């Protein structure tokens, strides 16, 4: 029926045109036939292996899908053999019984660290255990100042590709105010490892720095409400920083790779959002404390009956 209809249309087109205009006639030609393909039966009951075997038997080549993930060889994907901070660090005295036990464990762990430091010095001639801790603290301060200013280019040069997403995650619409006040104890190296990746000679240096300092931190949301911390209240912070460098790369540099949070550290509390309450208008030179203003209490609200 369809074939007869197409032939009739073609003949009708020939009759309507003259022989002189035959050069400009466009004859519609059927390009391909469309067959009705019935839906497959019992496909859901077949397993993936049976479907693959049936496809190969019918001559259909299914390309193999590889689960690939991009890697970055300029830094490692984690912390190799992380340092385990002793419980009660910066609280126990070295003269107490617990302090002496922790000191003996640290001496036992320094054997592997000395071997790693020796490997690091073979590739980095300027590495010094006395000066490196101070340099690591300077990198830590510069990285956090670049984070508060949202300087991405400088932050990439100070932290590794593994540490960068951990520092900037969740800070898009927030305002950070961070300040380093002073060091309560001089920073020192407590742990060092020299792992390799992919091949045996591809070495990376990881050095753990113990830093006990005083800092201030305040985080505001996009509406200017205080979410965490206080700009005027300094706090004592004990941190274990991990610095890393690709030793084989002659142009590599030491960058911040991550932090080690001890298991005995207290858990962080929930974020409490604050709201500014309306107060009296102050005149020039007038202070709020001198007015003895009483903050009005909110009225009780019945949420449900």
From TrEMBL:
Q: Known Pfam families for this protein?
A: Tim44
Q: Where in the numbering of this chain does the Tim44-like domain appear?
A: 113-261
Specify the superkingdom. Eukaryota
Record's subcellular location: Mitochondrion
Q: Would you tell me the Gene Ontology cellular component terms?
A: mitochondrion; ribonucleoprotein complex; ribosome
Q: Which UniProt keywords apply?
A: Mitochondrion, Ribonucleoprotein, Ribosomal protein, Transit peptide
**PANTHER family assigned to the protein according to its UniProt record, in alphabetical order:** 39S RIBOSOMAL PROTEIN L45, MITOCHONDRIAL, LARGE RIBOSOMAL SUBUNIT PROTEIN ML45
**Role noted for this protein:** Component of the mitochondrial large ribosomal subunit (mt-LSU). Within the mitochondrial ribosomes, required to direct the nascent polypeptide toward the tunnel exit and position the exit at a distance from the membrane surface.
Q: What family is this protein classified in?
A: Belongs to the mitochondrion-specific ribosomal protein mL45 family.
Q: What is this protein called?
A: Large ribosomal subunit protein mL45
Q: Which organism is it from?
A: Electrophorus electricus
Give the lineage.
Eukaryota, Metazoa, Chordata, Craniata, Vertebrata
């Amino acid at each position: 029926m369809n074939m007869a209809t197409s032939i009739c249309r073609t003949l009708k087109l020939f009759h309507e045109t003259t022989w002189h205009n035959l050069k400009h006639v466009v004859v519609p030609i059927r390009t391909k036939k469309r067959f009705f393909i019935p839906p497959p039966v019992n496909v859901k009951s077949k397993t993936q292996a049976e479907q693959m075997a049936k496809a190969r038997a019918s001559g259909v080549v299914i390309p193999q899908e590889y689960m690939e993930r991009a890697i970055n060889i300029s830094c490692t994907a984690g912390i190799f053999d992380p340092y385990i901070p002793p419980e009660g660090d910066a609280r126990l005295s070295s003269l107490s019984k617990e302090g002496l036990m922790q000191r003996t464990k640290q001496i036992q762990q320094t054997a592997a660290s000395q071997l790693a430091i020796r490997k690091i010095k073979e590739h980095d001639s300027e590495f010094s255990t006395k000066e490196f801790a101070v340099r690591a603290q300077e990198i830590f301060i510069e990285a956090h100042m670049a984070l508060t200013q949202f300087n991405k280019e400088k932050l990439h040069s100070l932290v590794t590709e593994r540490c960068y997403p951990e520092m900037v995650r969740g800070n898009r619409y927030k305002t950070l105010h961070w300040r380093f006040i002073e060091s309560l104890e001089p920073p020192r190296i407590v742990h060092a490892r020299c792992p390799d990746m992919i091949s045996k000679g591809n070495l990376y240096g990881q050095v753990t720095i113990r830093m006990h300092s005083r800092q201030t931190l305040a985080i505001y949301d996009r509406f200017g409400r205080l979410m965490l911390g206080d700009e005027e209240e300094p706090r004592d912070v004990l941190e274990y920083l991990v610095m890393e460098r690709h030793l084989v790369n002659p142009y590599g540099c030491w960058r911040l790779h991550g932090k080690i949070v001890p298991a005995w550290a207290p858990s962080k509390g929930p974020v409490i959002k604050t709201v500014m309450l309306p107060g009296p208008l102050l005149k020039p030179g007038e202070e709020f404390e001198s007015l003895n203003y009483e903050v009005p209490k909110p009225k009780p609200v019945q949420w449900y009956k």
